[in-house]
């Protein structure tokens, strides 16, 4: 440290001695120089000779040196006195107009390269270090033009992270010296871990940081503190002398045996007492100065070549005594140098923004017996993927304790600190009374430490989760201390600004149960802890021990009766359909009876009266009468089609009346428990203008769910102001009517609703998730707890816990007392309406058949009438002929028997006069209407009387009969 201050003071004095002048402007049209002097500040004759040889060969390499350009070497020997080195740079290099300086030093840790960097950097002359690896050279505020072909020591932290990722170790202890390089290693490790390893499950976290002063005498006190930590992976950055002390004391405390892992840097690996199993790093070509000289010269030539193409290079500063000024071309040349990326003798050579070497390759070294170093892997550049790649042969590694089995990397504790929170029925917590000494047999002591006033109160806990904790402890063999959540919350995170040495950063801080676990003040959370992405980012979760969702709890509306309560058995739609059906059926009945051919007919009574047809009024009266079960005295349908529809309507009426009567009786006795809300999608919840108060618990998983859902953001803004600290307060306010809807986990709300019949859950479950056991990240108990829970599910233990705690005490059984009938709707009674429709269709079909049949019958009757008329006409003709023949025969007989007695003549005349008294041939009476009337009149006028006989006085005059 004293040498550093002396060097800084000397350089400041040197800079005051150099006058500053204005920047020399190159005349317009000037060209770049045709030759370039390259300075070298080297440590030995071999390096100086090799420096000149490389430049000589460079001049013949047209790939780097265009025609007309020549490079010359200017070298000096480095001095251990940094002031002399600075003066030599001014006298022998800057005075010769060097365009860049290559500097190396013996591996003794002197500060001469810093003097070269200070002096050259004052004029912006680029300096390429080939052996300086201290972290101080990365500070561009001091070493403004310095870059190096070797990586700084703190870059080994990058390889540490790759090794940890390959081995699967996620929790480490970093041990480093309190100097600049030691702190740089810690900063590099933490920054790279957060930047390059996004997955927190594989990211290495620092459990503890041990910082010690260099030049140690003893390290035992630090080791005693490290023993209490959980991690057994130690990352060591120390000098060779300090590493010797650390390894010595670690061996005394048995911390170099099996179960402990040491990963060290190059300096610590060179200690004389490195234990077996140590894993260290070794930089490839770290001491090969000749290869680094060649890479440095070729990088410089590549940058100058590209710069001459793009712009003009002015001449370098002349000397330190004359017109010292900032060389702008040198400043821009340094920018070109940082963009180089070539394949050199030492591997892929490239630089970061600080001018530090990237893509440096390391060998992974493992210490075997007899202090032998064995290469077990490499950290090399992959040219195809263009990035560094780690390759380790695990089978060739010997671990501490001289064993081939890889340690776990952590100490698995058997006594755990477990946290829980009161949440019925999972955890019942009661305060221990003053006269009580201990908790009951089924209870566990669970003290509550109040973070507000610092007081501790004794509580006794029991419930679902407590029984689960007992079973887990017995199954996977651990002991525990149980405590309640300090602030009574499950935990949520807040974004807070933290000021560090780098700047202001924003971090997430958790409170409640999650905060205790993240801060590693607890090992386990056994509570109804909902698994969600926000929590899973910071803690581990076991497999769910219970699956559930989110629902809404509200108070049932009070029982109420209205003047239209008798209409409740049927829905409004069903009532309207019944009313419409009555009149539709009446209308169809009227039409069927009106247009049916058999709707009107004569009765067989003697008075010849005819019954009136069914009119529309009578049809409506008939339909209502059948529906209301009243007697129908008149106006019934007569046609067959109408009577079929009437029978169907009667069946419909019977079903409707029976259903209404049965459902009305149920409604008069029971009342359906109605909910005010239909679920999370209810418009009254989504509409902030509605006077509806809803809430959840602050910082809970439900609260996080609403924050996460964009479509529920409007609702969340309204309910955020109403959120409660605990679920018990919210449930009590729901009972008291102060809160209309409480949104919470379904398991708890269903339990409350089953206990109190005045409460009811509304809608379907949403946001389905599960309750899990919370553990620290990379906890050794995660797999064991998960396997135990899966076994509990399979064996039925979780089901027994459900029966004992979730459904325990539900004496009232609200469902049995409040089985309220459902209002019947069209869905329930659609069948009877289909039956009526089928009856109407059937009636229409029957009337069509009737009309067709009647038309066919009329046609047949007309044909029969024509046939009868023709037959009767034929019979009349025959009778006339017979009568004529008889008259002629009688006349002949008269002529022959003219002289016969008068009595005979009179008799013949009588037969001729009354020919109809003779029997007529049998013919249908209705064929000739006049004959029918004559026969009837004969019957009615006493046909038994004989026809009138002629008196003898008339018979004497027969002269008119004589032909």
General description of the model:
With 963 residues, this protein is of the alpha/beta class. The protein contains 29 helices and 31 strands. The strands form 7 sheets. Strands 7-6-8-9-10-14-15-16 form an 8-stranded mixed beta sheet. Strands 17, 23, 26, 27, 28, 29, 30 and 31 form an 8-stranded mixed beta sheet that branches. Strand 8 (233-237), helix 8 and strand 9 form a beta-alpha-beta unit. Helix 1 (2-17) runs parallel beside helix 4 (112-122). The protein is elongated, with a radius of gyration of 59 Å. The termini are far apart.
How far apart lie the N and C ends? 191 Å
Gyration radius (Cα, Å) is: 59 Å
Q: How many individual β-strands? A: 31
Average predicted local confidence, pLDDT: 80
Key phrases:
29 helices; eight-stranded mixed sheet; alpha/beta; 963 residues; disordered C terminus; disordered N terminus
Short description:
The chain is α/β, with parallel strands linked by helices and 963 residues long. Helix content is 41%, strand content 18%.
Draw up the topology in text:
Layout (H helix, E strand, L loop, with lengths): L1 H16 L17 E8 L2 H14 L11 E8 L4 H12 L4 E6 L8 H11 L4 E3 L16 E3 L7 H12 L3 E7 L2 H17 L8 E8 L7 H8 L5 E5 L2 H13 L8 E4 L1 H4 L9 E5 L5 H22 L17 H11 L2 E4 L2 E5 L5 E2 L3 E7 L3 E11 L4 E6 L22 E6 L7 E4 L12 E2 L2 E2 L6 E2 L1 E4 L1 H13 L2 E6 L8 E7 L4 E7 L1 H7 L5 E7 L2 H4 L3 E2 L4 E10 L16 H24 L20 H12 L12 H30 L13 H4 L7 E2 L5 H8 L4 H7 L7 H10 L4 E5 H10 L3 E17 L6 H14 L1 H10 L7 H4 L8 H71 L5 H12 L15 H12 L11 H4 L8
Parallel strand pairs: 1-2, 1-3, 3-4, 4-5, 6-7, 6-8, 8-9, 9-10, 17-23, 17-26, 29-30
Antiparallel strand pairs: 10-14, 11-12, 12-13, 14-15, 15-16, 18-22, 19-22, 20-21, 24-25, 26-31, 27-31, 28-30, 28-31
Helix pairs in contact: 1-4, 2-10, 3-4, 5-6, 10-11, 15-16, 15-17, 15-26, 17-26
């Amino acid at each position: 440290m004293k040498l550093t201050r002396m060097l800084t003071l000397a350089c400041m004095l040197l800079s005051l001695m150099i006058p500053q002048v204005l920047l020399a402007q190159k005349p317009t049209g000037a060209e770049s120089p045709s030759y370039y002097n390259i300075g070298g500040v080297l440590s030995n004759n071999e390096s100086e000779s090799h420096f000149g040889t490389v430049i000589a060969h460079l001049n013949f390499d047209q790939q780097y040196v265009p025609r007309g350009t020549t490079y010359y070497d200017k070298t000096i020997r480095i001095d251990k006195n940094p002031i002399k080195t600075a003066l030599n740079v001014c006298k022998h290099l800057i005075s010769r107009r060097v365009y860049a300086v290559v500097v190396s030093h013996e591996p003794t840790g002197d500060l001469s390269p810093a003097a070269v960097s200070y002096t050259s950097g004052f004029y912006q002359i680029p300096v390429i270090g080939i052996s300086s690896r201290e972290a101080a050279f990365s500070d561009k505020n001091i070493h403004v033009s310095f870059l190096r072909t070797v990586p700084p020591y703190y870059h080994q932290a990058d390889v540490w992270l790759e090794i940890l990722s390959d081995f699967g170790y996620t929790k480490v202890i970093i041990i480093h010296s309190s100097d600049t390089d030691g702190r740089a290693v810690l900063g590099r490790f933490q920054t790279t871990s957060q930047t390059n390893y996004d997955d927190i499950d594989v990211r290495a976290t620092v459990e503890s940081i041990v910082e010690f002063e260099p030049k140690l005498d003893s390290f035992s006190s630090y080791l005693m503190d490290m023993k209490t930590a959980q991690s057994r992976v130690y990352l060591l950055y120390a000098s060779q002398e300090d590493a010797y002390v650390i390894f010595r004391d670690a061996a005394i405390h048995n911390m170099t045996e099996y179960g402990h892992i040491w990963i060290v840097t190059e300096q610590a690996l060179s200690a004389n007492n490195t234990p077996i199993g140590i894993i260290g790093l070794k930089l490839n070509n770290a001491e090969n100065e000749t290869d680094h000289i060649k890479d440095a010269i070729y990088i410089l030539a590549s940058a100058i070549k590209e710069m001459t193409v793009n712009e003009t290079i002015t001449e370098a500063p002349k000397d330190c005594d004359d017109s010292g000024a900032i060389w702008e071309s040198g400043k821009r040349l340094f920018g070109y140098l940082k963009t180089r990326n070539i394949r050199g003798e030492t591997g892929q050579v490239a630089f970061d923004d600080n001018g530090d070497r990237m893509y440096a390759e390391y060998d992974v070294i493992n210490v075997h017996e007899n202090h032998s170093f064995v290469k077990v892997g490499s950290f090399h550049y992959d040219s195809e993927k263009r990035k560094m790649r780690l390759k380790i042969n695990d089978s060739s590694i010997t671990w501490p304790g001289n064993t081939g089995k890889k340690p776990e990397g952590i100490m698995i504790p058997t006594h755990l600190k477990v946290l829980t929170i009161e949440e019925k029925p999972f955890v019942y917590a009661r305060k221990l009374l003053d006269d009580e000494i201990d908790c009951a047999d089924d209870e566990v002591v669970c003290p509550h430490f109040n973070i507000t006033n610092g007081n501790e109160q004794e509580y006794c806990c029991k419930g679902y989760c407590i029984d689960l904790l007992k079973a887990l402890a017995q199954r996977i063999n651990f002991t525990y201390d149980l405590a309640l959540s300090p602030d009574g919350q499950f935990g949520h995170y807040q974004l807070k600004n933290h000021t560090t040495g780098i700047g202001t950063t924003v971090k997430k801080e958790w409170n409640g149960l999650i905060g205790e676990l993240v801060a590693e003040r607890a090992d386990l959370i056994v509570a109804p802890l909902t698994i969600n992405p926000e929590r899973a980012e910071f803690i581990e979760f076991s497999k769910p021990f219970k699956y559930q969702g989110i629902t809404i709890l509200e108070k049932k509306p009070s029982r109420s009766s209205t003047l239209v309560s008798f209409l409740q058995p049927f829905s409004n739609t069903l009532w309207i359909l019944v009313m419409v059906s009555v009149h539709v059926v009446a209308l169809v009945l009227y039409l069927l009876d009106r247009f049916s051919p058999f709707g009107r007919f004569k009765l067989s009574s003697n008075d010849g009266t005819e019954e009136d047809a069914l009119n529309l009024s009578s049809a409506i009266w008939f339909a209502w009468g059948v529906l209301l079960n009243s007697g129908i005295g008149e106006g019934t349908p007569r046609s067959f089609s109408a009577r079929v529809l009437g029978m169907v309507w009667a069946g419909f009426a019977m079903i409707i009346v029976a259903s209404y009567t049965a459902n009305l009786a149920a409604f008069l006795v029971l009342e359906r428990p109605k909910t005010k809300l239909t679920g999370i999608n209810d418009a009254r919840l989504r509409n902030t203008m509605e006077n509806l108060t809803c809430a959840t618990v602050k910082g809970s998983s439900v609260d996080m769910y609403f924050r996460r859902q964009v479509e529920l953001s409007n609702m969340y803004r309204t309910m955020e102001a109403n959120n409660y600290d605990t679920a018990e307060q919210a449930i009590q306010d729901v009972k008291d009517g102060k809160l209309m809807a409480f949104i919470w986990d379904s398991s708890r709300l269903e339990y409350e609703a089953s206990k109190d019949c005045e409460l009811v859950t509304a809608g379907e479950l949403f946001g389905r998730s599960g309750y899990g056991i919370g553990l620290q990240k990379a906890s050794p108990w995660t797999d064991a707890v998960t396997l135990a829970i899966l076994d509990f599910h399979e064996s039925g233990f979780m089901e027994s816990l459900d029966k004992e705690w979730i459904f325990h005490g539900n004496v009232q059984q609200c469902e049995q007392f409040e089985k309220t009938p459902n209002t019947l709707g069209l869905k329930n009674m659609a069948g009877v309406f289909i039956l009526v429709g089928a009856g109407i269709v059937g009636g229409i079909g029957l009337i069509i058949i009737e009309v067709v049949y009647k038309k066919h019958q009329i046609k047949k009757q007309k044909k029969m009438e024509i046939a009868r008329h023709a037959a009767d006409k034929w019979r009349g003709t025959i009778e006339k002929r017979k009568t004529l023949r008889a008259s002629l025969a009688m006349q002949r007989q008269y002529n022959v028997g003219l002289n016969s007695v008068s009595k005979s003549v009179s008799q013949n005349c009588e037969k001729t006069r009354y020919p109809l008294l003779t029997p007529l041939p049998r013919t249908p009476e209705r064929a000739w209407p006049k004959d029918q009337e004559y026969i009837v009149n004969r019957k009615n006028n006493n046909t038994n009387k004989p026809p009138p006989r002629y008196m003898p006085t008339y018979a004497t005059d027969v002269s008119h009969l004589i032909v």
